[in-house]
Amino acid sequence: MKYKSYNLSNFRSIPQISSLDKEMLDDIVTVGSVLPFKVNNYVTENLIDWSKVPDDPIFKLTFPQKEMLIPEHFEMMNQAIQGTIDKTKIKLVADKIRMKLNPHPAGQIQLNVPTYREEKLWGLQHKYRETVLFFPSQGQTCHAYCTFCFRWPQFVGIDQLKFASNEARKLHDYLKEHTEVTDVLFTGGDPLIMKTKILETYIKPLLSDDLPNVRNIRIGTKALAYWPFRFTSDDDADDLLRLFEKIKKAEKHLAFMAHFNHPVELNNELVENSIQKILNTGAVIRTQSPVLRHINDNPNVWAEMLKKQVALGCIPYYMFIARNTGAQHYFSIPIIEAWNIFRKCYQQISGICRTIRGPSMSCLPGKVQLLGVSEIKNEKVMVFRMIQGRNPDWVARPFFAEYDPNAIWYTDLKPAFGEEKFYFTNELNSMINNEEEENDFE
Ligand SMILES: *Cc1c(COP(=O)(O)O)cnc(C)c1O
Ligand code: SF4
User: Fold this and answer.
1) Ligand 2 near 143 CB (within 6 A)
2) Taking Cα atoms as reference points, which of 224, 214, 225, 163 lies closest to residue 188?
3) Rounded to an integer, what distance in angstroms lies between the CA atom of residue 219 and that of residue 123?
4) At what angle do helices 269-280 and 237-249 cross, to 10 degrees?
5) Per-residue CA distances from 358 to 280, 310, 371, 415 (Å)
6) 108 lies in a domain?
7) Is 149's C-beta closer than 6 angstroms to any atom of ligand 2?
8) 436: confidence class by pLDDT, cuts 50, 70, 90
9) pLDDT at 441
10) Ligand 2 atom closest to Cα of 36?
11) Do 168 and 315 fall within a single domain?
12) CB contact at 8 A, 44 and 6
């Protein structure tokens, strides 16, 4: 298949789009003027069941929906579009709305950007001791955009990630000095949007003898779901698989972190083939997804997805909670409800599938998992633990919050038993304050 991408300017040429009514098309334009929109011919031809639109989960995953903007914002944008042909004015209104959608979730990207010899290494994030995130500059887009994506600000250009010149070199220098780092996670966007040649310039230096601490190279990608041809018929598909083999030959572990949101994305031979090709290189595929209202907020859908993943040789890894940004009001469900979905899914899958962990929030202190609801001394509480912590010492310690069936994010939580703070609150606050003193936040 030849890649064909659609956005606001050409989506009306998608053959199946003629089955939608005019109002829906107008809504796509209105919402798509604020939130990013991009889809491709594989998604429209193979994943979306057009007879089920607008309820089809992959349609909701990739096409802007009216309710993704609150009515006030929708009206603002609609009026701007109808009342003017001046593109710059439309952009001003769009930017105004965007700034109200919490474009910098878990804030302080700067809190995670490390410093090397007094220089900020933009394009790197180092939040958890063992793992560095790396954002290669050519990998900051995707084969299609997910409507829930927490990286949306960078796709609409209000959050330009900055990159160090000579990124590969600086990543290498940093890792050489930081021997506590065992994992490098390539992320984006989708790093597999890059040509193999470019990806190789980043990966090869990590295989050199002077980085024995780097054990695991992870690639976070949605290519299996949005463009499985990346591993079969793309021009440099074979080169990519050979590159994966080189990682294995250098005795590093290639952890392919695959992003799937719905079993539909796994139900065709193209994906099965691609998974097999990746596994044949010695890589291990781990899978992750947020739980999303309108798309996969159902334990049976999750169970089906995890079983299918395991049948294809993948290892379930994380169930996330939708982040507090963008169209969160559209996708989010209370943390308790996410836990119920997790629990009811977990109960119907075998131990082999229970490598999944969650539901987990990637928030300021760390990755916070709801273990469940309990009652302690007549008080109903929610029991959490950190799977990852900004301070490694916080990890795996349980903590308790007041039972709140409406809480949708960790900022909604209050400590249980009348306590004022969680055990990590003071330390977290001082980390934030220190950073603010040291850096000029922009
Ligand atoms: C999720 C995440 C990681 C990886 O965490 P693992 O639990 O090792 O998969 C690393 N850095 C950041 C900032 C993250 O959000
Ligand atoms: S593929 Fe990943 S980075 Fe790209 S839009 Fe989807 S969630 Fe965001």
Assistant:
1) no
2) 163
3) 15
4) 30
5) 29, 17, 8, 20
6) no
7) yes
8) low
9) 40
10) 5
11) yes
12) yes
Question: Minimal CA–CA distance to 330: which of 96, 53, 99, 63?
Answer: 63
Give the CATH number, domain containing residue 141: 3.20.20.70
Query: Is 324 inside any structural domain?
Result: yes
Strand partners, 132: 184
Cross-strand bridge partners of residue 248? none
Same domain flag for 247 and 375 = no
The angle that helices 237-249 and 196-203 make with each other, rounded to 10 degrees, is 20
Question: Which pLDDT belongs to residue 442?
Answer: 35
Closest by Cα among 310, 217, 225 to 266: 225
- What is the atom index within ligand 1 of the atom nearest the CA of 125? 13
Residues 270 and 197 placed together within one structural domain of the fold: yes
**Ligand 2 in contact with 155 (CB < 6 A)?**
no
Nearest ligand atom owner, CA of 388: 1
**291 C-beta closer than 6 A to ligand 2:** no
Q: Which residues pair with 134 in a beta bridge?
A: 124, 186
pLDDT, tens digit, for every residue of 358-369? Answer: 999 999 999 999
Peptide bond between residue 54 and the one before it cis (omega within 30 degrees of 0)? yes
* DSSP structure class, residue 415: B
Report the nearest-CA residue for atom 10 of ligand 1. Answer: 131
Q: Please tell me the predicted confidence (pLDDT) of residue 137.
A: 94
In the beta sheet, which residues pair with residue 370? 384
Query: Are 77 and 125 part of one and the same domain?
Result: no
Pocket test of ligand 2: the residue of 154, 259, 261, 331 to mutate, having most ligand atoms within 8 Å of its CB, is 259
Ligand nearest to the CA of 131: 1
Q: For 410-434, what is the mean pLDDT?
A: 94
Helical packing angle, 22-32 and 71-83, nearest 10°: 100
Q: What is the pLDDT of residues 152-170, one digit of tens each?
A: 999 998 877 788 878 999 9
For residue 164, the CA-to-ligand 2 centroid distance in Å is 23
pLDDT tens digits, one per residue of 374-397: 999 999 999 999 999 999 999 999
Q: Ligand 1: which residues within 6 Å by Cβ?
A: 112, 125, 127-128, 131, 133, 185, 362, 367, 387-388
Distance CA 156, CA 136 (A): 18
Per the structure, the complete domain to which residue 66 belongs is given by 5-98
